[in-house]
C-alpha cells in the first residue's frame, strides 16, 4: 500500500475523531451535572479514540 | 398539520440538545469504516497477534468490493439496528416518565401528529446516519478493494432505507406500548429477532416477506434484481402504515400511565 492511499484512508478518521472530541469536550464543560466526575470524562474523551466521546454522549450525560 | 409541524420542531430541538444528531451518524460512519479496514489488514493483524507457528501460510481470498458492501450491511443489521433501538427506545416511554408528557398531554393533542412527528425525526436521523455509513464504507471499499458502480450502491442504500423506516416505526410502537424505556428496547429487540427467526425457519417461500428486503438489496448489488423486491417493499410500507395506526392508538391509550 502506498503512502497516498494510507493518507486518504486516515484523514477522514482523524477528522471524525477531532469533531467528536471537540463536541464532547464543549458539552462536558457546559454540563453542570455529568454522570460521574468531570475529570474522568475529560480523560476518557481525550484518551480513548473514537469510542470515548460516543461513550460520553451515551452514558455520560443525564438525559432525563 | 400545524400541530405536526410544531411537534416536529420540538423533536428536532430535543435531538439536537441530546446530541443524537451527532453521535448516531458517527457510529454508523465508524461501522462503515471498520469493516473494510479490518478485512484489508487481516493478514497483518493475524501476524502481529503472534500465536501462529513459524512459517504458517494463509491463503485468504480477497473479498470482492460487492461482498465488502454486503458485509457492511450485515454490520448495520446487527450493531447498527441495536444502536438505533437503544437510541430511540425512550422517545415515548421516557417522555412519560420524565414528565415532558404531562406538559404535552394536558393540551388538546392529536396523537397522530404526536406519533408521526417522533417517527419523522427519528427516521430522518437514522436514514442520514445509514446513508453516511454506507458512503463511508463505499469510500473505504473503493480505496482498499476496488470500484463498484455508484448506481449499484445507491440501489442498495435505497432498498435498505425502506427497511430502516420499518424498524423505526417498530421501535416507536414498542416505546408507545411499554411502561419504561428498558421494556421498550426489550420489546423492539424481541420482535426484531423473532421476525428474523420466523422468516429464516419457515419463510423459504415467502418471497414477499419484508424481512427479506436487505437480502434482496444484496442480490441486486451482486447481480440482477429479484422480481419480488417491489412486492416486499410494498408490504413493508403497508406494515409501516399499520404500525403508525397502532402506535398513535397505544400512545393515546397509555397516556394515563404518565407520572406526574
TrEMBL record, chain A:
Domain (Cardiolipin synthase N-terminal): residue spans on this chain: 19-61
Pfam families in alphabetical order: PLDc_N (PF13396)
Membrane topology designation: Multi-pass membrane protein
Transmembrane segments: 7-26, 38-59
Transmembrane helix among keywords: yes
Compartment(s): Cell membrane
Keywords: Cell membrane, Membrane, Transmembrane, Transmembrane helix
Any one cellular-component term (Gene Ontology): plasma membrane
Record protein name field: Cardiolipin synthase N-terminal domain-containing protein
Automatic annotation (TrEMBL), chain B:
Residues spanning the membrane: 21-42, 76-94, 115-141, 153-176, 183-208, 228-249
Coiled coil: none
GO CC term (a single one): plasma membrane
Highest rank taxon of the organism: Bacteria
GO molecular function annotations of the record: ABC-type transporter activity
Keywords: Membrane, Transmembrane, Transmembrane helix
PANTHER family, A to Z: INTEGRAL MEMBRANE PROTEIN-RELATED, MEMBRANE PROTEIN
The name this protein goes by in its record: ABC transporter permease
Species for this entry: Planococcus donghaensis MPA1U2
Amino acid at each position: 500500500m502506498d503512502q497516498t492511499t494510507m493518507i486518504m484512508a486516515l484523514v477522514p478518521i482523524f477528522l471524525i475523531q477531532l469533531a467528536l472530541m471537540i463536541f464532547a469536550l464543549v458539552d462536558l464543560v457546559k454540563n453542570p451535572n455529568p454522570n460521574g466526575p468531570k475529570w474522568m470524562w475529560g480523560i476518557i474523551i481525550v484518551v480513548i479514540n473514537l469510542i470515548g466521546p460516543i461513550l460520553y454522549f451515551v452514558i455520560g450525560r443525564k438525559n432525563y | 398539520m400545524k400541530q405536526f409541524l410544531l411537534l416536529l420542531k420540538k423533536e428536532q430541538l430535543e435531538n439536537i440538545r441530546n446530541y443524537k444528531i451527532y453521535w448516531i451518524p458517527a457510529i454508523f460512519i465508524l461501522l462503515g469504516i471498520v469493516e473494510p479496514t479490518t478485512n484489508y489488514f487481516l493478514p497483518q493483524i493475524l501476524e502481529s497477534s503472534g500465536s501462529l507457528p513459524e512459517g504458517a501460510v494463509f491463503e485468504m481470498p480477497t473479498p470482492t468490493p460487492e461482498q465488502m458492501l454486503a458485509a457492511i450491511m450485515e454490520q448495520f443489521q446487527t450493531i447498527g439496528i441495536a444502536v438505533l433501538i437503544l437510541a430511540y427506545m425512550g422517545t415515548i416511554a421516557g417522555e412519560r416518565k420524565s414528565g415532558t408528557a404531562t406538559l404535552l398531554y394536558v393540551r388538546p393533542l392529536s396523537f397522530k401528529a404526536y406519533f408521526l412527528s417522533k417517527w419523522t425525526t427519528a427516521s430522518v436521523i437514522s436514514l442520514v446516519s445509514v446513508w453516511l455509513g454506507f458512503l463511508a464504507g463505499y469510500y473505504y471499499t473503493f480505496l482498499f478493494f476496488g470500484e463498484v458502480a455508484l448506481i449499484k450502491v445507491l440501489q442498495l442504500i435505497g432498498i435498505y432505507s425502506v427497511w430502516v423506516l420499518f424498524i423505526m416505526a417498530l421501535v416507536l410502537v414498542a416505546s408507545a406500548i411499554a411502561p419504561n424505556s428498558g421494556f421498550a428496547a426489550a420489546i423492539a429487540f424481541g420482535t426484531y429477532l423473532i421476525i428474523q427467526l420466523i422468516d429464516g425457519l419457515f419463510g423459504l417461500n415467502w418471497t414477499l416477506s419484508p424481512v427479506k428486503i436487505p437480502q434482496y438489496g444484496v442480490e441486486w448489488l451482486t447481480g440482477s434484481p429479484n422480481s419480488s423486491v417491489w412486492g416486499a417493499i410494498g408490504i413493508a410500507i403497508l406494515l409501516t402504515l399499520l404500525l403508525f395506526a397502532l402506535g398513535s392508538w397505544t400512545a393515546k391509550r397509555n397516556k394515563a400511565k404518565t407520572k406526574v
